[in-house]
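To: structure desk
From: M.T.
Subject: fold request, one chain
Message: Could you run this one when you get a chance? Sequence is below, nothing fancy, just the single chain.
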Amino acid sequence: MGDKFCDSVCPSRKKVLILFPIMESLLNENQIEQLRQLVSQSQHTVVCCHVNPDGDAVGSVLAIVHCLRRLGQEATAIVPTPFPDFLDWMPGAGDIVVYSKQVEEAKSLIEKADLFVVADLNNPSRLTDMQECVMGNPAPKILIDHHLDPFDFCQLNVSHPELCATCEILCHLFWQLGEMDKLTPEEATCLYAGMMCDTGGFTYASNRPVIYECISLLLSRGIDKDKIYRNVFWTSTPNRLKLMGYMLFVKMKVLRKMNTCIMTLTNEERYRFGSKNGDTEGFVNLPLQIMGMRLSIFLNEDTEHPEVVRVSLRSVDDFPCNEMAAQFFNGGGHKNASGGRLQCTMEEAVRVAQKAIQAYSALLK
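Reply: Done. Structure tokens follow.
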């Protein structure tokens, strides 16, 4: 009776064909065979990512390491610099070797590696101090990344800038390799966390329906997505909340005519609040809650290199953060989320930011 009723009020109902998205094959048969051979022939794989690793970098590196170990391979995760403390909970995070803090151990592992998987970076320069050591080893390299304009420095490139995160690329790869239904909860947790972090909790760069098929498949592997969300976005120290309040009340400068906000943070201010590594994660997104804001710029001094100012850019709609980052901040990224670095004082960095805003005033207004 229900079907007859629906057909009477919507006669065209039977003509509607709903097409569900399907997982995507990213490699051709030759590339799949090349990937299998490279992995099977390896005795020790080093998996690495970009400097100042974020959730997608850490998630993708750990997911790859977990998968390789499950397949009986020897694999180690090495990152150039420390990752945020709020990612410490991720399965396997405690085993990550941090190059800047464990130089000799990292160099020894890199020198004996016979395969590298380079995740979530498009240019070997983003390995910073690790670059010479990694590139000096002639072992084959596999690139898995979603940033624009990848350098051609690997034997196999899996580059898909149209995907929301490197962890999404891995979801499709694991599916294509027949590994998706074999993922452990630890692997699936790392993949989900990486996708979630690179989309701000699936609030930007996440309109493609297939993303949610990836999520559905990961949920079937036993992850607790609610707990992952709490671990990343709703776990703060009192000092972090105090610093957030200070940044919003004192340091946020709203440029109404340009629909832009600028925030700055020095190391002296960071120490005053007892800030831990990663405590400022997500701060750059906060000003975009202001009605009409199109661009948020966050300038903060690097904790390990005070002469360097790190730049984070976030935007809404069609404002091209990546173009601004490349033109003014020696960086790049995605349209709505990019970053860069300036080797200068904070005062000089602010002037560069002001110059950038003026150059893009037509788009901002």
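Reply (cont.): The domain at 238-364 is CATH 3.10.310.30 (Diaminopimelate Epimerase; Chain A, domain 1). Let me know if you need anything else for the meeting.
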